[in-house]
Specification:
There is one protein chain. The protein has 247 residues and is an alpha/beta fold. The chain has a single domain, classed as SGNH hydrolase (Rossmann fold, 3-Layer(aba) Sandwich). It has helices at 2-29, 37-49, 63-66, 71-75, 90-95, 97-100, 115-118, 126-142, 164-179, 214-230, and strands spanning 57-61, 80-84, 108-112, 149-152, 184-187. α9 links the parallel β4 and β5.
């Protein structure tokens, strides 16, 4: 009996070690853009069978965009296109910009990303995130995408509460960067995800403490849609009109 228990204990320990090693491998592998190449190829396959109209608003990012199943409905009548994949980092958006943004000749690009960068196991600093966003913007211009970019603030989540301080600082850096440019708008949503007591609002997150709930997407919609509607009220909208207003 004792030997059986020892064997079971050893087997359990080996299983835990192997599981931990596998999770570390997945986390490290997913930090490479090639890890998500299959999802990007699927976008291209869909574009062949059902080409989306050009000149719309392209949403790019990772989890929050990928899981936004009601995006078209929420943003109607605005012409939007969901190009969220995996748990994309800003670097991944840069890497695939020629395939997930350029072909659609967008009027605007909405970026909902950065949370995955801050949660990276190798550690990303706020300064590195700002640098990554600058590289992304430069890549768009190099690909002849002149559309304005709306950067939605990096949001908190209960599962990554320890990362919020760095994410908040990254938001501040990107907000300051956007304020000095004519082609970037920073949109604050994160501050609305806290109660008056500065606690995260439980109802806007799913059970996993990481993904947004329907209420969370409603919050995103309430901030994004009015901004985009103001700039798409004519055939030749000026997305950067009144760009100095507070969002």
């Amino acid at each position: 009996m004792r030997e059986t228990l020892i064997r079971l204990g050893i087997a359990a320990a080996v299983f835990v070690v192997l599981l931990f090693a596998f999770l570390v491998y997945v986390l490290l592998a997913s930090s490479s853009p090639d890890y998500w190449a299959g999802e990007v190829s699927e976008f291209e396959r869909l574009d062949v069978s059902n080409p989306p109209p050009k000149g719309g608003i392209v949403f790019v990012g990772g989890r929050d965009v990928r899981l936004w199943e009601t995006l078209e409905e929420d943003m109607a009548p605005l012409p939007v296109l969901n190009r969220g994949f995996g748990g994309a980092y800003l670097d991944h958006l840069t890497y695939f910009a020629a395939r997930i943004i350029k072909p659609y000749q967008p009027r605007a690009v909405v970026v909902i990303a950065g949370a995955e960068d801050m949660a990276d196991v190798q550690g990303r600093t706020p300064e590195e995130l700002l640098s990554g966003f600058k590289v992304f913007l430069s890549a768009l211009r190099a690909h002849e995408v002149s559309a304005p970019v709306i950067f939605v603030s990096i949001r908190p989540s209960p599962m990554r509460a320890a990362r919020w301080f760095g994410a908040k600082r990254a938001n501040g850096l990107i907000e300051a960067f956007a304020a000095a440019r004519d082609d970037v708008i920073y949109l604050d949503v994160a501050s609305l995800m806290f109660t008056d007591d500065e606690e995260m609002r439980d109802e806007i997150f799913r059970w996993d403490g990481l993904s947004l709930s329907p209420e969370g997407y409603s919050l995103l919609t309430s901030r994004l849609k009015p901004l985009l509607m103001r700039r798409f009220n004519s055939r030749q909208p000026n997305l950067l009109e009144e760009s100095n207003e507070q969002f």
